Every structure is written in structure tokens, then in C-alpha cells.
Amino acid sequence: MSAFIKTTSKRLTFGAVLLGATLGLSACVTQPPSFGSGIDFREARYNEISAMRTYRECRDHALELDREAQTNHDPAKYLASARMIEKCESDLGPDVAGIATDERMRAYALTVQNHLKGGDVEGARENLDKFAANFDGQDLYFADGSSFIQTMEVLLGKRGAGSIGRYSDANVNNDLKSELRRVRYWERN
Fold it and tell me: Span of the secretion signal (predicted)?
């Protein structure tokens, strides 16, 4: 009888070990490995890089038009450059709208300036509003520390004409403030 108990005990122990090993291994491999998330990430990153490459090529053509406009003092080329940058930005798409923000801000700021230089004041105002909306309150600063947005607001007449300190509270170049005050003085006198 003791041989029977030893054999049964060994079989039960072996069965328990086998059951434990089977459960342990099945817990480790509950589902096949997923490589999709890595592939999806790479695909998304590739799409971002392709979109930015296309954007930069388009922007470079627009900057070439801007250089030609400066050289020839051609208002039509300023407007063409502005429209091309607008197209570059609109073709970019919402999926990659958060990348290279500083680079895109500088290009879009150029659309505001080029519309103004080309004589399309209303287009410059519209693009300034789009700039402020699309880049969520961010601003660019000129070499002297003056604000791009506030300078353009002053030049485009978006600041209240009746306010007493019309230019004093604006972060605008002092020479520009002086010139605008001089023009305002001579308009009234």
C-alpha cells in the first residue's frame, strides 16, 4: 500500500508541477506580439517628414519670389509670394500643424508684410488675424525687441485711432512711433 501511495503522490506532484508550468507559460504568452504600434509610429513620422519636405520646397519658391520682389520693387511679386506661402500653409494639413511652428510662424508673418508691401491692406489684416489665431497667441520679435503683432496692428490701423496713448503702450519700434505721430500731427494741423 505504501508503494501505491508513493506512486500516486509522485503522479500528483508531477501533475501539479506540469499544471503550474503550463499555467505559467500560458500567462506569459496570452496574445501574439503586436508590432503595429511601432509601424504606425514610423508611418506617422514618415508622413510628417514628407509633409514638411513638401512645405519647405513650396516655401523656398515663395521666398525666391520675395527676393525678386525686393530686387525689382515689384508689388505683384510681393502678392504672389504671400499667396504662395498661404497655399503652402493650407496644403500642410491638420495632422502636422504642430511641427516646425517657429519656422512656419516666420513664413506666415512674411505673408502679412508682403500683402502690405503689395498694397493689399485688407489681405494683410486678414492674415494678421489668422496668424494670431493659428499660432495661439505666440509672437515674433524684431532685432530691436519690438513685437511683430503689435507693429503690424499699428501699421494696419487695427489699434483704436481715438485712444490717447495709441502708440505708447505698444511694443513698437521708437522710430516707427515717431513717424506715425508726425504723420498724425500733420493730418490734423
Answer: 1-27
State the pTM of this model. 0.69
* 172-182 residue pLDDT tens: 777 777 777 77
The answer to whether position 8 is within a domain reads: no
What is the DSSP secondary-structure string of 129-185? HHHHHHTTT---B-TTS-BHHHHHHHHTT-S-TT-TTTTTTS---HHHHHHHHHHHH
How buried is residue 6: exposed, middle or buried, by Cβ count under 10 Å (0-12/13-18/19+)? Answer: exposed
CA distance 110 to 112: 5
- Kindly report the number of other CB atoms within 10 A of residue 36's CB atom: 9
In a domain, 5, yes or no: no
Tally of domains in the chain? 1
168 domain-assigned:
yes
Is the pLDDT at 89 greater than 60, yes or no? Answer: yes
Residue partners of 170: CB distance under 8 A and separation at least 6:
147, 150, 151, 153, 154, 159, 177
Residue 30 has pLDDT above 60, yes or no: no
For residue 87, the number of C-alpha atoms closer than 13 Å in the C-beta half-sphere is 13
Do the domain assignments include residue 77?
yes
Apex 180 CA angle, 174 and 183, nearest 5: 145
**Residue 91 region by backbone torsions, left for phi larger than 0, else alpha for psi between -120 and 50, else beta:** alpha
